[in-house]
Amino acid sequence: MNMKTGLSQEQSLKLHLSQELRQAITLLQYNSMELEQYVQELALDNPLIEIKEQMNPNTFYHRRQFQGASWDYSEIDLIGSRSGGLADYMFEQLRMIDETDRIIKGTRMFVEQLNENGYLEEDAGIRGHGFSDAEEKECLLILQSLDPAGVGARSLQECLLLQTNRHQSKPKSAMDIISRYFTLFAERSWKELSRISGYKIQEIQNTYDYIQTLHPKPGSTYEGTHASYVVPDLIIERTGNGFEAGSNDAAVPEISISSEYESLKSQSGQGELKKYLSAKQQQGVWLLKTLDQRKETMVKVMKEILSVQQAFFQTGKPELLKPLTLNDLAEACGIHESTASRALKGKYVQTPYGTLEMKFFLTNKIGSANESDQSAAGAKEVLLRLVNNEDKTSPLSDQMIAAVMLERHDLKLSRRTVAKYRDQLKIPASSIRRRYTEASND
């Protein structure tokens, strides 16, 4: 076999991304806070980039959710955030307890074994550290007497019992039902529970309603839970003729290219310095250009959304959102789908109805009897209204909801789709939504 070596030329097409193009793609997918951090870091490395101080600092808007965007059925709202965590809060309480140093030390060791929800794992204990059984029990009792109520429990059942034990105005049946019939109670086998225990269904219902006021994860409220605040990249404002979409300029750092170094570039014998300054100047110019492109693209996308979703902006009703997919949006704007995706990712817009994520306005089309345009978002709002207005003693099943939505609202959904939307809205199944009355015992 003859083998030869030599040089040959081959022509091929390859996509080459310049540094500037990479920067444009990166900046487009940044939200306002990420963009500000990026520009600050770039300015530290480039002496020609100057960041002007904003006369009015960035305004932080609280993110609003439409009523019905989620259905918090069994969780109570988180209490105000605290500067320290759960352990710090409990250590503060221990400093005020009149006990021996040894018992305080043992209790602190228990605190250090709490998980993020305020529970102790099955193998948690302090006997392996030289404490007796009696000392361990005493330390555990002290731990469980601290705030928040329910901390130091080893199970959900014990957590609820610890909280219930502190309340004077609890239903008479609560302690007994939780301690003796918890499995049947949690599984909502209430008729069986009533037959075994002798409690009426209404008494069991009252206990259930009471438990909804307790917190199943007492420690989670002390782990740095902060209110959700965002800086909108865009603003929708009412005008005399309707609405107008614009950029929130206060959310983007205002930069300029310094001219102080121009004289150095013209000096002789400064080749390396001149080369360095020219590169930094070009980097700054590209940054300005890229920021303008980012703004132009995002405003263009938002204007198209505004055009399609006029019914929503006129009324503020999510059920009036029209079907709009990412591909449809990209085609209407004359940009690639990936560009549209980056323009939407993590971005928020300030509207007359609160600060909303831009992806909120994208929704798929669903079937209807007369082939009219119906959106998934609208279907979810209708579903939510049906559940909110249903007879709680006889709640609607998923199949019944599908039938009502078709008959009354021309929304053609399968039972599976209803169940999927219900899960997304955090709406429990009909068996859990059902409420009992005195007549239920009959």
UniProtKB/TrEMBL annotation:
- Which InterPro entries is this protein grouped with? RNA_pol_sigma_54 (IPR000394), RNA_pol_sigma_54_core-bd (IPR007046), RNA_pol_sigma_54_DNA-bd (IPR007634), RpoN_core-bd_sf (IPR038709)
RNA polymerase sigma factor 54 DNA-binding domain span: 275-435
Where does the record place the RNA polymerase sigma factor 54 core-binding domain?
82-261
Keyword Protein biosynthesis among UniProt keywords: no
Keyword terms, alphabetized: DNA-binding, DNA-directed RNA polymerase, Nucleotidyltransferase, Sigma factor, Transcription, Transcription regulation, Transferase
Q: Does the keyword Magnesium apply?
A: no
Give the family this protein belongs to, as stated in its UniProt record: Belongs to the sigma-54 factor family.
What is the official name of this protein in its record?
A: RNA polymerase factor sigma-54
Q: Which organism's genome codes for this protein?
A: Metabacillus sediminis
Q: Which lineage do the record's taxonomy fields give for this organism? A: Bacteria, Bacillati, Bacillota, Bacilli, Bacillales
